């Protein structure tokens, strides 16, 4: 529920509707040709495209041609970087949907300036994440075995006991829903662009907007659809990472076999997602000079959420340690007491602890929360910290499990690193294309917000106005 | 044109004159000429259409064609061959290096595996025997004879060599026939006949690894130069001094089997032998000892002297005066040995006549010599009859060019004696130089004629390992290449007609048939021996002296000793001992850092260096593969500032090598060890250049090669070298993975050490998240299980290779092993004991060692099964955890969730060969693959199947014969290879099965049973026959003493 007295003005500068459209679309309408873009855009695009081309154009085919042996995985650490990166990207992919949907359902109107970019980020992050399970299997050409496939001429069925199967289903559902939600939100904005453009561009956006015309009925249905889809997607945010976490917690390994994992994973995902939103919004605000839309208050709100989530993370780490001690399970005790705290994996563990549980506490200081540089640096630190958390989950428990004779050392190869950079390239290219060609902010929602904060009394939504008018 | 009618109707038509008009396929009625032309003449368009179609079709058709693979079926089935059914032929592996009575398993004409001949007492195999079958298909073997390194044929060889032999005979120039111990009666006779023809030929016997010390010692004491037969099963107390008799010393298979017999605590046995081991390096044998004491190599002699004098005092024999003082306390050992007089055994692995003489005298005092005792001279061990002194003299003469020629047979002295270039070059300078060899090895590279040997599976032969045991060797396959067994060459050169097969038959007819009874005729004797593989001659006859001549020699030698020492009037070994007392009491001074060159369980003397199975076999102690290294103790490494993988330079005897350091607990602090058998330069593409040769360090002392006490200088080079080891964590961290107890505790309480088993069994009964778990109703038929007795397992790793051979398991190479991707389905975990048996406590300086074979445990509540998304690893109704390779997509979830980590992933397409040519590299090598076991594509997970193909074959056999399966009928590859019988496989649903008793034994437990995985494999507690508290062996006092003496000197 938006209350001006609490949140202040979310759009500065008393914008009119026309101005909002102008501001959001200025950067793409100012380009003379469909392929022209500013120099910084090209520089960034080429950089990320090279990462994408080398990582996914060379190292992925190399893996598929030669085998998983190209990676650092071994018989003890059967899962390596691929799964770390998978979980990391899925976590980032939580941002958009969590941000957008939770705030939508909770009627937090400050989401309006940010949700579009966050949702786009989700799509690209989930695409990057989805790549890993696909290339991670030993025989990708037989991957379809994993789908419960109807007219089953093979006479075989999948194993519903396996968390991995649920994992596949959850991720595909999540990707589909996230994409629909994102796309649907863009329909009115596509229509706006369609009306403002000519030639081929008009045709393209005509097709993309699915004939959205802005009738009252259309708006009504649109709003309903968004809220229903949002309601459907909200549990998915919880379920996806919970199911990902069962890949670990349903196993028998010390350090994996933990009931805390589902909430721990979801919170971790939201944590990393918010950090990534922060990183991205600071950049977008800077390059497109949108500080009137993404205000310091917006960033401040994100930072506050991060403090809260970081506290949950910190307590989850402490609970894990406590339970390891309290359980008196010698294997569990060893993994936490020896492997993590003082042993071979102490450096990543403590780095994770400091990055995720301690550094974000700096946001208690208003100065730090309102300083773009510190915000940006800390958001990057959190992302590194969250990568390390996944490293600590995937590698040490298998490296030092039950039988000490098996214990091993794991190190990634250049192919592992290349594919990881490749997914960063995929993400970067996706985000850049989004920034150049699509409406980076939800114009229709911004306009509603502008209206709300200038004309309407508090606690009244657009519906109320419309309904009043209709009654009249 | 003649017209035929097609039916009666048509005939009518023809008769009516209407026939066949206008009945063309395409009627042209009513068409103009142009139109007809249009129709029948192809125009340009049609042509192009056709051309296009046919080209496209041809391309499509040819591009889809499968590669042609030849499979030629039998047109006429050969006799005695049923395609798809294996035949077994009893044969003998006997090539001067390894010896074992074996059964060769032949499938469709190809030997694919060797198995122990279980009819023979104390049978079993080592890793080397198991791996030997791959050498048959090794294309690096010589495929034809060579002359000056170039291909030639046997005719030329025969012509030229006989011409040269004749020439040398006429000139009266000596020709040395340097050979490894023959131990083959027919070959010895043949050699005799050859020498008759060429009296200038002088045979010299020498072994790859010398045991001359033992035979010299027996000559000193008893007058016969003989290596006696040792019987560890007749010893209640065993004391080993640097003798790795379970791993490499003399006849490890027999010794392991005998040793295990004394350590069997199943089936109501309550007695166990007590094993003391005094050694400088950590050997496999030491790792199994009840009490293991670290001594310096230099201390061995004075320790034995001390033991000798103490026993002499107790038995009233003359002591050796002036023995150097020894502070090492061995009261416990003396007490035990005296208590077990006549039932004990002391052995030493040091190749030094003085030490061996002491050992022999100690055994004599302890009354251990005799027909039914632990040492038997009459039943001599013939396989290591080499004489170093003579061989070294011969080599010197060759180097000096004093002889006319040399023929080497099954020996590679250039490598094994570490000969330098001067020696090697001298061979070719002789008029005749030839080598019988399987490979173009270091010696073969330096001779004129290289005579390509058959593999043992391609040859006829016989063997006499012990005086009373005769064995027959028969080929299991026709020769693969243009090779010839040495005996046939000698027959040709000596002008003996016929083939060697007939020669053996004649020998057996003339010499052995008379000694046996109970056969119809010779053919019956021959056929049944050939089937059985060996025959034992009544041992009573062996009690007689072998022949009068030998007896006369013995007498003469005794006389000589007596003459030299006039005070000795009688033939008393102890008197002989006194006569050499000076030699015996000579103090061996520690010489700073001393090197011991030792044999590795897998590699031995290095003949099989090109065998990738052996190269990739983890050393039972260090677990290192594909390399040799300098092993040093942790203290020494710390003092010198060396770390694991640091490269050090070892200099000594005018030779220097650089090798990486491997830190080995339980080793003496001033001794380093380097394994022999590496650094080969003629083994083949796989073995060449792996490791460095330590042989040149070995220098003769008193005419006998001495592998120990080599003074060396060791310095750090600053380089590092990566080592591939399959195990990098060495302690159990207080986990009860290997449960252990002492004999005393076990006698009091059979559950001792295994107390938790009962608790878990009760507490965890039927707790499971999933519906299934162990429910007898789920397994109505068989339920397979396995019991592994950790008290019998010595860790020799024969099972590892047997499993690999049986199941077509890929060999992955050093780099992949380093990255922990070894494919072995069966591995042996080795743990060192900690100071206190709990978390984080440090490793002991002299740790106790346990070995634990781990393979898939076939859990009835398997964690791997429920996590596979595609259901590729289901549980069978017979309790097996099965693996459907075709179904597997390789998510590797099962590998992560296996608490035992026994699952293996095909990280690359190993079956394709390519970068991994070790097993699948070429068509010839692939012949060794077991057709009953599918090879695995890349990207699938594999693991132990409990040899499901053998289970299936056994069941089918029983079904075909219309009977129930018998217990023990199905033997798994690991179980079969095991010389100690530590592994027992069976059906836990069979009421009287051996395995039921083992499962119910109080020593049995499941590995990680607290996880409630319900494994079908049980382990049995290891029992050590020792006191609770370690003895004070006074080692520190001794070290100080030595240091002072060194200082004085």
Count of all domains of chain B: 5
Briefly note the CATH topology name of chain A.
Answer: Formate dehydrogenase/DMSO reductase fold
Let me know the largest β-sheet of chain A: none
Rg of chain A from C-alpha positions? 24 Å
Strand order of the largest sheet of chain B: 5-4-16-15-14-6-7
Number of domains of chain A: 1
Assigned CATH superfamily of chain A: Formate dehydrogenase/DMSO reductase domain
Instruction: Give me the count of strands of chain A.
Output: 0
CATH class of chain A, named Mainly Alpha
Commentary on this structure:
- The complex is a heterodimer of chains A (472) and B (1049).
- Chain A is mostly helical.
- Chain A has 19 helices and no strands.
- Mean pLDDT of chain B is 85; it is low at 541-546 and 565-570.
- Classes of the chains: A mainly alpha (472), B alpha/beta (1049).
- Chains A and B meet through helix 7 and helix 12 of A and strand 33, helix 29, helix 30 and strand 35 of B.
Present the secondary structure layout.
The complex is a heterodimer of chains A (472) and B (1049).
Chain A: H1 4-7, H2 17-29, H3 39-66, H4 81-92, H5 94-105, H6 115-136, H7 163-196, H8 199-208, H9 216-249, H10 261-287, H11 296-327, H12 330-342, H13 346-358, H14 366-369, H15 372-394, H16 396-399, H17 414-437, H18 443-454, H19 462-471
Helix pairs in contact in A: 2-18, 3-17, 4-6, 4-10, 4-15, 5-6, 5-9, 5-10, 6-7, 6-17, 7-8, 7-9, 9-10, 10-11, 10-15, 11-12, 11-13, 12-13, 13-15
Chain B: H1 8-15, H2 33-40, H3 44-63, E1 86-94, E2 99-107, E3 110-116, H4 127-136, E4 146-147, E5 150-151, H5 154-171, E6 175-179, H6 185-197, E7 201-205, H7 212-222, E8 229-230, E9 237-241, H8 252-261, E10 274-279, H9 284-288, E11 291-294, H10 299-315, H11 331-339, E12 344-348, H12 353-365, E13 375-376, H13 388-399, E14 405-409, H14 413-416, H15 421-429, E15 432-437, E16 449-452, E17 461-463, E18 469-473, H16 486-494, H17 500-512, H18 522-532, E19 534-536, H19 539-543, H20 548-564, H21 573-579, H22 581-585, E20 594-598, H23 612-615, E21 624-625, E22 630-632, H24 634-640, E23 646-652, E24 655-663, E25 671-675, E26 699-701, E27 704-706, E28 710-711, E29 713-720, E30 724-725, E31 740-742, H25 743-748, H26 755-763, E32 784-789, H27 798-806, H28 814-818, E33 827-832, E34 849-854, H29 863-867, H30 893-897, E35 904-905, H31 917-920, E36 941-942, H32 948-960, H33 973-977, E37 983-987, H34 994-1000, E38 1004-1005, E39 1017-1020, E40 1022-1024, H35 1035-1048
Parallel strand pairs in B: 6-7, 6-14, 9-10, 9-12, 10-11, 14-15, 15-16, 20-25, 22-24, 31-40, 32-39
Antiparallel strand pairs in B: 1-2, 2-3, 4-5, 4-16, 8-13, 17-18, 18-19, 20-28, 21-30, 22-25, 23-24, 23-29, 26-27, 32-37, 33-34, 35-36, 38-39
Helix pairs in contact in B: 4-27, 6-16, 6-17, 7-12, 10-12, 13-15
């Amino acid at each position: 529920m938006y209350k001006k007295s609490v949140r202040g003005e979310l759009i500065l500068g008393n914008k009119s509707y026309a101005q909002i459209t102008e501001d959001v679309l200025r950067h793409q309408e100012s380009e003379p040709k469909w392929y022209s873009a500013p120099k910084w855009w090209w520089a960034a695009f080429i950089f990320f495209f090279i990462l994408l081309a080398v990582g996914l154009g060379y190292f992925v085919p190399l893996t598929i041609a030669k085998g998983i042996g190209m990676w650092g995985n071994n018989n003890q650490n059967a899962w390596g970087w691929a799964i770390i990166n998978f979980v990391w990207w899925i976590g980032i992919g939580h941002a958009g949907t969590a941000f957008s949907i939770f705030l939508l359902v909770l009627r937090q109107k400050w989401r309006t300036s940010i949700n579009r970019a966050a949702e786009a980020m989700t799509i690209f992050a989930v695409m990057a994440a989805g790549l890993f399970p696909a290339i991670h299997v030993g025989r990708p050409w037989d991957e379809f075995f994993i789908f419960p496939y109807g007219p089953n001429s093979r006479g075989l069925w999948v194993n519903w006991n396996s968390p991995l199967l649920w994992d596949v289903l959850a991720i595909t559902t999540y990707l589909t829903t996230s994409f629909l939600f994102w796309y649907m939100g863009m329909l009115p904005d596509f229509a706006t662009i369609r009306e403002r453009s000519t030639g081929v561009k008009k045709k393209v956006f005509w097709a993309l907007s699915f004939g959205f015309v802005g009738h009252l009925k259309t708006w009504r249905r649109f709003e309903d659809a968004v809220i229903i889809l949002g309601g459907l997607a909200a549990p998915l945010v919880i379920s996806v990472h919970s199911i990902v976490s069962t890949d670990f917690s349903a196993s028998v390994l010390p350090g994996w076999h933990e009931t805390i994992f589902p909430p721990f994973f979801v919170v971790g995902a939201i944590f990393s997602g918010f950090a990534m939103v922060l990183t991205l919004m600071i950049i977008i605000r800077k390059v497109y000079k949108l500080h009137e839309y993404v205000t310091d208050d917006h960033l401040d709100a994100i930072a506050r959420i991060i403090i809260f989530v970081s506290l949950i993370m910190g307590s989850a780490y402490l609970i894990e340690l406590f339970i390891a001690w309290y359980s008196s399970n010698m294997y569990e005790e060893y993994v936490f007491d020896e492997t993590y705290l003082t042993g071979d994996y102490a450096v990543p563990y403590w780095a994770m602890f400091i990055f995720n549980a301690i550094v974000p506490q700096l946001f208690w200081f208003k100065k730090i929360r309102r300083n773009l540089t510190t915000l940006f640096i800390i958001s990057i630190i959190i992302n590194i910290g969250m990568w390390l958390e996944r490293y600590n989950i995937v590698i040490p428990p298998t490296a030092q499990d039950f039988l000490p004779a098996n214990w091993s050392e794991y190190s990634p190869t250049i192919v592992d690193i290349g594919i990881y950079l490749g997914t960063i390239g995929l993400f970067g290219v996706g985000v850049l294309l989004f920034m150049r060609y699509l409406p980076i902010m939800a114009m229709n929602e911004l306009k509603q917000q502008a209206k709300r904060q200038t004309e309407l009394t508090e606690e009244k939504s657009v519906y109320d106005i419309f309904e009043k008018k209709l009654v009249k | 044109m003649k017209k035929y009618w097609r039916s009666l109707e048509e005939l009518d038509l023809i008769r009516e004159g209407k026939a066949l008009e206008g009945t063309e396929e395409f009627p042209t009625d009513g068409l103009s000429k142009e139109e007809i032309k249009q129709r029948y003449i192809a125009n340009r368009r049609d042509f192009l259409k056709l051309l296009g179609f046919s080209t496209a079709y041809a391309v499509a058709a040819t591009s889809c064609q499968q590669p042609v693979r030849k499979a030629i079926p039998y047109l006429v089935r050969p006799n005695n061959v049923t395609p798809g059914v294996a035949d077994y032929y009893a044969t003998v592996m006997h090539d001067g290096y390894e010896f074992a009575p074996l059964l060769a398993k032949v499938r469709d004409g190809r030997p694919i595996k060797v198995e122990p001949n279980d009819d023979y007492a104390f049978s079993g195999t080592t890793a080397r025997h198991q791996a030997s079958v791959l050498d048959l298909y090794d294309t690096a073997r010589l495929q034809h004879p060579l002359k000056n390194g170039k291909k030639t044929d046997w005719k030329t060889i025969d012509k030229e060599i006989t011409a040269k032999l004749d020439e040398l005979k006429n000139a009266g120039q000596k020709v040395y026939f340097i050979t490894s111990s023959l131990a083959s009666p027919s070959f010895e006779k043949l050699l005799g006949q050859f020498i008759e023809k060429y009296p200038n030929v002088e045979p010299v016997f020498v072994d790859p690894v010398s045991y001359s010390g033992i035979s010299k010692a027996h000559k000193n004491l008893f007058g016969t130069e003989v290596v006696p037969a040792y019987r560890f099963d007749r010893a209640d107390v065993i004391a080993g001094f640097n003798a790795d008799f379970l791993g490499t010393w003399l006849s490890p298979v027999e010794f392991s089997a005998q040793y295990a017999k004394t350590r069997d605590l199943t089936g109501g046995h309550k007695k166990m032998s007590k094993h003391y081991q005094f050694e400088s390096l950590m050997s496999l044998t030491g790792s199994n000892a009840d009490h293991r004491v670290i001594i310096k190599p230099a201390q061995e002699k004075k320790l034995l002297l001390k033991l000798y004098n103490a026993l002499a005092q107790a038995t009233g024999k003359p002591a050796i005066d002036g023995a150097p003082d020894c502070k090492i306390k061995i009261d416990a050992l003396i007490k035990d040995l005296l208590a077990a007089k006549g039932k004990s055994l002391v052995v030493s692995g040091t190749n030094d006549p003085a030490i061996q003489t002491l050992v022999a005298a100690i055994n004599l005092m302890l009354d251990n010599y005799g027909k039914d005792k632990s040492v038997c001279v009459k039943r001599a061990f013939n396989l290591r009859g080499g004489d170093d002194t003579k061989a070294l003299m011969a080599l010197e003469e060759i180097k000096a060019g004093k002889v006319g020629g040399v023929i080497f047979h099954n020996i590679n002295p250039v490598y094994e004696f570490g000969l330098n270039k001067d020696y090697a070059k001298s061979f070719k300078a002789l008029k005749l130089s030839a080598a019988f060899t399987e490979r173009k090895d270091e010696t073969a590279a330096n001779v004129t004629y290289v005579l390509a040997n058959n593999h043992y599976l391609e040859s006829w032969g016989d063997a006499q390992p012990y005086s009373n045991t005769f064995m027959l060797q028969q080929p299991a396959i026709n020769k693969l290449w243009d090779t010839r067994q040495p005996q046939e060459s000698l027959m040709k050169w000596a002008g003996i007609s016929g083939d060697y097969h007939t020669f053996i038959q004649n020998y057996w007819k003339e010499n052995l048939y008379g000694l046996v009874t109970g056969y119809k005729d010779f053919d019956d004797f021959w056929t049944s021996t050939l089937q059985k593989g060996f025959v034992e001659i009544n041992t009573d006859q062996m009690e007689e002296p072998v022949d009068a001549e030998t007896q006369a020699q013995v007498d003469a030698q005794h006389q000589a000793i007596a003459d030299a020492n006039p005070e000795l009037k009688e033939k008393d070994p102890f008197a002989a001992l006194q006569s050499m007392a000076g030699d015996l009491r000579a103090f061996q001074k520690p010489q700073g850092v001393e090197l011991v060159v030792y044999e590795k369980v897998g590699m031995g003397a290095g003949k099989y260096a090109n065998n990738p199975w052996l190269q990739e076999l983890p050393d039972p102690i260090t677990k290192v593969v594909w390399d040799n290294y300098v092993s040093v103790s942790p203290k020494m490494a710390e003092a010198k500032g060396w770390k694991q993988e640091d490269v050090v330079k070892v200099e000594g005897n005018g030779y220097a090598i650089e090798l990486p350091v491997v830190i080995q607990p339980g080793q003496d602090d001033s001794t380093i060890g380097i394994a022999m058998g590496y650094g080969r330069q003629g083994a083949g593409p796989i073995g060449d250049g792996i490791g460095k040769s330590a042989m040149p360090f070995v220098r003769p002392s008193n005419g006998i090669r001495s592998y120990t006490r080599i003074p060396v200088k060791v310095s750090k080079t600053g380089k590092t070298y990566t080592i591939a080891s399959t195990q990098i964590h060495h302690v159990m961290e207080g986990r009860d993975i290997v449960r252990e107890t002492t004999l005393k505790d076990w006698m009091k309480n059979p559950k001792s050490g295994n107390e938790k088993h009962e608790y878990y069994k009760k507490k965890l009964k039927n707790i499971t998240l999933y519906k299934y778990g162990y429910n007898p109703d789920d397994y109505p038929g068989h339920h397979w299980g396995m019991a592994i007795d950790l008290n019998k397992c010595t860790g020799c790793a024969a099972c590892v290779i047997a499993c690999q051979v049986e199941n077509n398991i890929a060999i992955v190479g050093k780099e992949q092993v380093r990255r922990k991707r070894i494919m072995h389905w069966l591995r042996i975990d080795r743990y060192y004991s900690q100071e206190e048996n709990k978390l984080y406590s440090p490793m002991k300086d002299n740790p106790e060692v346990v070995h634990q074979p781990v393979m898939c445990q076939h859990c009835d509540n398997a964690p791997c099964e429920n996590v596979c998304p595609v259901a590729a690893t289901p549980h069978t109704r017979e309790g097996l955890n099965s693996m459907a390779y075709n179904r597997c997509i390789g998510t590797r979830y099962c590998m992560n969730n296996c608490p035992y980590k026994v699952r293996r992933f095909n990280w690359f397409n190993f079956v394709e060969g390519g970068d991994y040519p070790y097993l699948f590299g070429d068509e010839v090598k692939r012949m060794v693959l077991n057709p009953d076991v599918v090879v695995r594509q890349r990207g699938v997970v594999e693991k132990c199947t409990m040899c499901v193909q053998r289970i299936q074959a056994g069941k089918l056999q029983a079904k075909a014969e219309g009977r129930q399966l018998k217990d023990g009928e199905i033997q798994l590859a690991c179980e079969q290879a095991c010389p100690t019988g530590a592994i027992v496989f069976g059906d836990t649903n069979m009421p009287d099965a051996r395995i039921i008793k083992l499962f119910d034994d109080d020593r049995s437990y499941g590995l990680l049973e607290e996880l409630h995985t319900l494994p079908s494999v049980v382990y049995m507690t290891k029992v050590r026959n020792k006191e609770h508290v370690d003895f004070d062996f006074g080692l520190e006092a001794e070290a100080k003493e030595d240091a002072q003496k060194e200082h004085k000197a």
